[in-house]
Amino acid sequence: MAIVTDRPDSPDAPDSAGPGTELEPAGDGAALGDDSPRTGVFARPTHATGWREWLFTVDHKKIGIMYGALALFWFLIGGLEIGLVRLQLWAPDGEVISADFYNQLFTMHGVTMVFLVIMPLANAFANYLVPLQIGARDVAFPRMNALGLWVFFFGGIFLNLSWFLGGGADGGWFAYAPNTGMTFSPGHGMDYYALGLQIAGIASLLGAINLLVTIINMRCPGMSLLRMPVFTWMILVVQFLLVFALPVITVALILLTFDRTFDANFFNVDAGADPLLWQHLFWIFGHPEVYILILPAFGVVSETLPVFSRKPLFGYPIVVLSGAAIGFMGWGVWAHHMFTSGMGPVSVAAFSATTMFIAVPTGVKILNWIATMWAGKVRFTVPMMFSVSLVAMFTIGGLSGVMHAIAPADTQQTDTYFIVAHFHYVLVGGALMGMFAGMYYWWPKAFGYHLNDRLGRWHFWLMLLGFNVTFGPMHIVGLQGMARRHSVYGEFDGFEFWNKIATIGYFFMLIAMVILAVNIFRTWGRYRRGLEPGAGADPWDGRTLEWAIPSPVPEHNFDYVPVVTDVDDFWHKKYQPDETGKLRRIAYGNDIAQIGDQHPHLPSPSYWPIVLAMGMPLIGFGLIYNLWIAGIGLLLLVGSMFGWTLEPATDPDAGHGHGHDGHGDHDDDHGGGPDGHDDGNGVLTASTANGEAAGD
Amino acid sequence: MGTRRARRCFAAVLALLGLLLAGCATGRLDATKPIGEEARDIDGLMRLSGWMAVGVGIFVAAAVAVIIVKFRAKPTDDPDDLPPQIHGNRKAELTWTLIPTAMLVFLTIYTLPTVFALASEGDGRTIKVEGQQWWWQFSYDLDEDGHYDIVTANDLVIQTGEEVNLEIHSNDVIHSFWIPQLNGKKDAVPGRIHEWRISSDEPGIFYGECVEFCGLSHANMQMRTIVLTPDDFDRWVQEQLAGKEAAQAAPAEESPEAAGAALFETHCISCHVVDGTYESAAGGNANLLAGIAPNLTNLMSRTAFAGALYETYQTGPDGDYLRNPDGSLKLNLAELREWVRNAPDMKPARADNQQGMLDFSEVLTDQDLDNLMAYLQTLGSEPVLPATNAGAG
Questions:
Q1: pLDDT score at B13
Q2: Closest chain A residue to B216 measured between Cα atoms?
Q3: Which of A406, B90, B182, B268 could be a cystine partner for B198, CB 3.0 to 4.6 Å?
Q4: Considering its fold, how many domains does chain A have in total?
Q5: What is the CATH number of the domain that holds A329?
């Protein structure tokens, strides 16, 4: 997080952004404290600078950046975990690590990458960008947004503390009962898994509800659903999936926790349970989860491909609707994870067919992306390279996915490295490539400067190479019969050659990640020393609203709420048809972008999200070790809820002598409660979406 | 210049091809070398869908390549001159919705009959398959009287041309039964019986393993299917029954075998069964989470022990069985002895949690081990091996 705590003014920030950088609304914290109507624990935090600014912030942009930083940290952990696995598989009968440790490593690698890396990475972009893309000043529930972040923060730490408290979870990320019950997994690893995911799930649920309300209610005037940027659309679909899928895993994890902690019999076969219950519950969550992971990346490239091809997205409504169709169809395919579980041929046939046809909307998306680039003038910037590689690499993963849909073929492929290859092409070649594209694309928007281009290209090429060298061979060893989750293979199995290649590929990816880290820290350092030029508001000739405001984005986002009349509205402010009907440039983004010199009333920071979140891991520890600890956690949690509700409604502008209660000049822009008063406690209401005239 | 460069390219391509061929040397579990009818049906579907996937993949890759080469922005381009702004095309959308749909309808129609065909019952015998941490047990009811006449571990023995019906289930957690060359996988789930069919027209040894993660030693839960000609199979059945008889005969007094039997009675029968002699553990054992340990009645007739992790008889560098001068198989006594002495050292297990065999290194002396080995060698005769081997690897 140190990356971003002390963002300086850009030395040669574009003129449009100049005044914006002085726009810290909470400005002088001390002044705010003096004006605080109440004191004691119920006072609002007053720190507008330093680390405390980050701990107590409710700003969706800071929260987004913290999601991103945490995700990258866990990416490092999850990546190092699997490095040991790759070393173990270097040669037959590997003796690098024990079978026990191996099982923990692949379990925690999966859990980490899914729940602590790709989901929060998507959350980082969603948090940062959705309000910007829909022309809003913040999300609907700013404090709840912060709560989601801190719950996720503590959930991730809690989950990984198991490494130091008896060993990580060892039942696989899918945790099939009854192997994960107390009888067969007596250590605490699976307890940390069940409770850690429960906590992380609460975080995702909070975020999902928040973004749903935000997208539905807070779009700027004129932004009808079919004028919404595709990224925001995909995030909307994902939030629906989360809201409906997370309760299912929540229930499953509660059953598992009850079995383990209170000797319940949900998965006890001797007491009449059917272990397939867990599998159904897990995959009813788990398959929508796959789309939760991939759709945000689809959203990202649906933004980047048009911008860098200098063409509108081909078939915008089709791309949006196919994304929504994937979201719907994603609910009817879960049992394709269970083709060998003994469901019976009718179920197998049905799920085989539904799974095949989910390939249709996915294929339509890919072809629309290709048509978007086709006949364009494609600029191969780093974000574009990552985006194009998503189109190519995800296609491979999608096609092997169709092969798995053929249930009889799947009985040969499932639980082999062929599947491992398949879903890494989807999740690394698809989701992660998309996230990297988004990082390079929106970095100048979030931080005001570009990541280094040359290092970015090294990162891209090593990543693409390493990725294919690692996961390409897994198709082959998978078909040759190498099973997943086997800590050793035999010398007569014939797997050695391709495993060596895959392990070499891993190190290419590792180097690529080191280069990314170097890029982030080096470029940041250079920017601080004034060696990097500012990016300007609109560095890529963008199409969506986030490019119509300064970089880095001022705390209040928009000086005035934009009014939208078209898809890609900002683009149409730059290009208009001439007399022959050909589009001509009439303006440059940096010239027409907002300048960020307003001081609207913003939600105040709050202590309570982080304090409340701290109660959750305590409850977790309590359920594992001693219920008294859970009592303390519960007390903290409930106490924080009181603190939350009793927190005073301070106006951060008070210290600046602006209207103190939200009736200032720009009240209408950022919305407020029914009485126009917003202190961050309630919803930043929909007044902006209801057609309020922009900019007063 | 050009030719030298071309030659160098050619050499590089050759080297790469050589490398790929080296990597294609296949092993014992190759799922692309089907022998059984069931596996062949699946293989047909895999190849069809695989080639269709390759075709579509090449189409997309070619399109991306054209974009990269042809539609790349040139430095000389006027930055404000836009390419044609095409927002969409209804016909194109319709085309690329319908063509994939048609392809998938074709695949579905092609797939579904196989799903049902694979679920149908075969006309051959039924064998009970039980998975448990971390080995497989196979039980044969020869006279269909509800009592299992042959109970063996690690080696599933069947005959050519017979559609064998397996009744797969588990005694502890979920496992998955997989003999890649004979059929796809079928999970072994506690509390459920899953029916699955395998068959082979050719004799051979077909390797397999557990493929559903089942805990600590999941990687070491292997098995083989030994397919014999009907004559050989009958011989195997007779030898199994004879071994059962022989195991009931008491060894000569004062012999190492007798001392071994005494040790076996002291240390082993709380978990292991020898039919007709030591059956105290039969029908469930409270000392084990799974409730059963391998039935050792015909131990010597099995090609492998310890979850098929170790060969009962010595093999050469190419995996072939070594023979004594008299033509008999060479016993892998060293590893068998070590296994009995300290099993957890040879295969990850959690004996303290009743998962896997105990460590006897502190209990048994060298003399004890020698005696035990002598006794174990009385249990059954050599395995019946297929005359020819259609197995991969």
A1: 67
A2: A100
A3: B182
A4: 1
A5: 1.20.210.10
